[in-house]
Write a structure and sequence with these properties.
The chain has 344 residues and is α/β, with parallel strands linked by helices. Helices cover 36% and strands 14% of the residues. Homodimer.
Length: 344
């Protein structure tokens, strides 16, 4: 067969990977343990009445109106896509590419570098301080784009306010703030922070709709217009639009479920403190920890007991670490019991 473009060969070898193995408890991909709000089931039942012979609303007007109400912005400041990864890919398709540079500070979400590879955007490596926060002085490196995960995946940590102030002050660049875990960190609505800032959120986490694939950007209307021009037409299907609107009508239930996760996160974090060598502070729905023994061996021991978490030990700057998603109380108890047995 014809080989792919040479510039994509590295990307093909470094694509997203999360182990898919049988497990009775799956705590590896930061999904909600509680599922979507009840209104979603009703919306799915009603979706059979949609005219699926017709293309969906190309600009997702009803969905953008609902998201605009949630964040207190006009629908013209909303861009929607199939998950926040597609939002990122569209941004880099429009503002990245050959000769363009994306600044990021690892360890952070691995898909940033992957999407940069696919779009042929050069990565400029920032730096982090000993406490894990971004070193603001490293922002002085030249780039057209800056991306920060707030709170950060995979460490779970919030960047301090003074760091975010410095990031947002980069008004000569397009600043992307990935807030996928905002609902667990009490960040509030994604208000507009400047014409150069793109805030990215998702319904995959607190809303319990990872299988729906709906992410969105809150940004200046001029930026949103470019994103709509850069994406494929009719890219968000009619069922996704209808179900997402239904979920957004029940934001109080989403907040209640996020609060349950936060309470479990604190409990699991305290328990890990007695088992692991180090536990990172988390403002998300997962916890990063160093088990104090070879991480991959511990991961394998957990898999043997039917518990699947994430081996993060090969990620940049995270040697000998594991990441566990917060599940239900029963799932978390099963994880902690199995970890105690593996470490005994």
């Amino acid at each position: 067969m014809v080989r792919p473009a040479p510039s994509l060969e590295d990307a093909l070898g470094a694509s997203y990977h999360s182990a898919q193995v049988p497990a009775r408890v799956r705590l590896n991909t930061n999904e909600s343990p509680y599922g979507p709000p009840p209104a979603v089931a009703r919306a799915l039942e009603e979706a059979v009445a949609l005219d699926l012979a017709r293309y969906p609303d190309r600009r997702a007007e009803a969905l953008r109106a609902a998201l605009g109400r949630l964040h207190g912005v006009a629908p013209t400041s909303i861009f929607v896509a199939n998950g926040s990864n597609e939002v990122l890919e569209t941004v880099l398709a429009a503002w990245g590419g050959p000769g363009r540079r994306l600044w990021l500070a690892e360890p952070t979400y691995g898909m940033y570098r992957q999407i940069a590879r696919v779009t042929r955007t050069t990565v400029v490596a920032g730096a982090r301080r000993s406490d894990g926060s971004i070193d603001p002085s490293s922002l002085e490196a030249d780039s057209e784009l800056v991306i920060v995960c707030q709170p950060n995946n995979p460490t779970g940590m919030l960047e301090p306010p003074e760091v975010m102030d410095r990031v947002l002050a980069c008004d000569d660049r397009l600043v992307l703030v990935d807030e996928a875990y905002a609902d667990f960190a009490d960040l509030g609505p994604a208000t507009l922070l400047g014409d150069h800032v793109v805030r990215i959120r998702t319904l995959s986490k607190a809303a319990g709709l990872a299988g729906l694939r709906l992410g969105y950007a809150v940004c200046a209307p001029e930026v949103a217009d470019v994103l709509w021009s850069a994406c494929l037409p009719y890219h968000v299907n009619a069922v996704t639009q209808a179900v997402a609107v239904a979920a957004l009508a029940d934001v109080d239930e989403i907040a209640r479920r996020a609060a349950l996760v936060v309470r479990e996160r604190e409990r699991v974090g305290q328990a890990l403190g007695t088992l692991a060598a180090r536990v990172w502070p988390s403002a998300t729905n997962f916890i990063l920890f160093d088990p104090g023994r070879p991480a991959t061996e511990v991961w394998e021991g957990l898999v043997a007991k039917g518990i699947l978490i994430r081996d993060a030990s090969r990620w940049p700057g995270l040697s000998n670490t594991l990441r566990v998603t917060i599940g239900t109380a029963d799932e978390n108890d099963a994880f902690l019991a199995a970890l105690g047995e593996v470490l005994a």
